[in-house]
Amino acid sequence: MFRRYVFPVRNVLKDGENVLKVSLSSPVLYASERRKAHPAYRVPPECPPDVQKGECHVNFIRKEQSSFSWDWGPSFPTMGLWKAVRLEAFDVLQLVHVSYVPLFNFSTSQWRVQVELLLDVVQTTNGQITLSIPELDSEQTFQAQFLPGKAKNSFTLHINTNKRVKLWWPNGHGDQPFYHLTVRGFQDGFLILNAESKVYFRTAELVQEPISGSLGLSFYFRINGKPVFLKGSNWIPAHSFQDQVTPAVLRNLLQSVVDVNMNVLRVWGGGVYEQDLFYSICDEMGIMVWQDFMFACAMYPTEDDFIQTVREEVIQQVQRLKSHPSIIIWSGNNENEAALATDWFNIPDSQRPTYLRDYVKLYVSNIRAIVQEEDQSRPFLVSSPTNGAESEQEGWVAANPYDPLYGDTHFYSYTPDCWDWRNFPRARFVSEFGFQSWPSFSTLQPVSIKEDWSYDSQFASHRQHHENGNQQMLLQAAWHFNLPNSTDPLKRFTDTVYITQVMQAQCVKAQTEFYRRSQSEIFEGKGRTMGALYWQLNAIWQAPSWSSIEFGGKWKMLHYFAQDFFAAVLPVGFEDDDTLFIYAVSDLSQDLKLRAVVTVYSWTDLDPVCTLKSDLLLVPGGSAAAIFKQSVSGLLAGCGRCTRLTCILTFHLEDSSSSQQGPTNHHFPCSPKDAQGLRTANITAKVQEDKTGYAITLRSASVAPFVWLDVGNIPGRFSSNGFLMVSRNRTVSFNAWRPTSVAELSTSLTITSLVDVY
Description:
By secondary structure, the chain is α+β, with helices and mostly antiparallel strands. Helix 2 (247-258) links the parallel strand 11 (230-235) and strand 12. The radius of gyration is 28 Å and the shape is globular. The chain starts with 26 loop residues before the first helix and ends in a 6-residue tail after the last strand.
């Protein structure tokens, strides 16, 4: 599934009609047969956990690993040809593929573009190759001889030093300009080759170096010489059947990425190498891509034929994708170093050297070696999570690949209180973390019947592919919320769906904000966090998962929250030993002078009880700085009639001209389930049509947390959702993805806030 096959047919074609016959065999049986042919030792895992209801031995077949089942998806091992088949004829030569890699010489400050032509040549051909980028006044012609067969031909175009090259930047850090690269081939004055590509210029470095005052090494990305905090998520296949992933589906999902201020996606190693359009849209939108190779959560065989097909896979994929500036790193696999180091598969000590040898053979001696030969423009990591340079020192498998002093880490913990920042690792970079939730009722309804609409139904159990997942969601929600207990089964189900989304949004918010405020700090040697990629962006079916976007494109509450917690300028509040700290986090290049503005509300009243302002403090660009510190009990007592149980805090940042910078945030002095005075808000709504779409004006009688608007099966997106309402009136817009009307929206609209589900 991951490589291109080319079959010469010149000697088998005949005049008249020719038939191409394709025979397909079961991938499940094939994988099983490959496993039986490997009797020397087992290559775990043999099968997925029972809860996933999947198929076995997926690690023996080069197909989408998650297609045999995963903890967020169904088992649909596909059969068939999933990309185009074509018959090609040519007289002289054929251009199979063209790729380019802009390279920057830091000592001379000069750009060059390395262009590679993969050609299929009929007979020895002498000619000329001309490379040009007209906008940069750069053109060179090369004499070339092309020998029969398939071969790679490399040429280097040096960029005119008098021209200032415009650089490609990640979303939020600048624009994504490109130039036109033209490749022409001539033989005896005749044009025999003509190709044109977009070319983007950028540098990508992974910095792993000692940190002053800390053990271990840093782990962060420098793009065009600038340290960039990576904000984003993890991408899984958008559909179980890849031919259903249309340009509209891709564009909608990727637009949803940039619209919440993300700058990166990790293309996860258990899925597929995405189609060309995916990477082209990422180039265009400034979405950086952490690209895994397709190996995940397993050991793999290393027979010669398996290694050979992997080598061809890697060569083809790197050649296909390396021209995209969006890809900033290659990573050899997902979690396989951790699986080996922490003994996921109960491998006896006596056999451990065999698996270590296989690991190094596959990912280091083969994949890493090929990538470093094919692409000098971006870094390569052997695994994720990994200790990076430290793992290499330890023979490529570290004693603890989750060590917070090195590399990247993955972190999942479903039982401790997810609002408590002390439960999170103070790591250098966190490339996976998250919590499950259920998708909305309108997403579930088309694939279910009335008997399914219960949290305890067979349907709820069947669609949950993570062990104890349904129970874990309620366990985490119960830390801070009263669980729904309506006597109406359907209301109890929809209320429970809502509370899982509130829990997920608030948990990932707390964790992401902790990582963002940790970027400038070292505490007991730990910190300087420079990346937060939650698991996961998208869903592959209508079921509970860690995703922030439901199957079909509807945003969960988490995705609306991401608009704020990934904002370029963000206030982060947290408590430590009865002290409230507020940090100002800035991704901007320029320094800012900011103050914190804290407003205290009673749960029973929409008029503020009091407002406090801190002094203006300097917040350097690309940093997090503490700008407010005060005892919570002292702050509440100073407000007169407030206690932890009766009041809630909101806070924002403002500059010297009193202009707000970034979103407004909130802090609960107590769990909402313990709040006194929190009551039904009786929110009413009026829908109106305006020039940009539809405006929904809300009116509330009291403070209302987690206000959630839903218009059922009318596809579209609200400008804001899941918010804390501390004003009598608030207007949000709705962008419909199909024609609708004020009447339809008014009829379909439901409004839920926290007390409504108690």
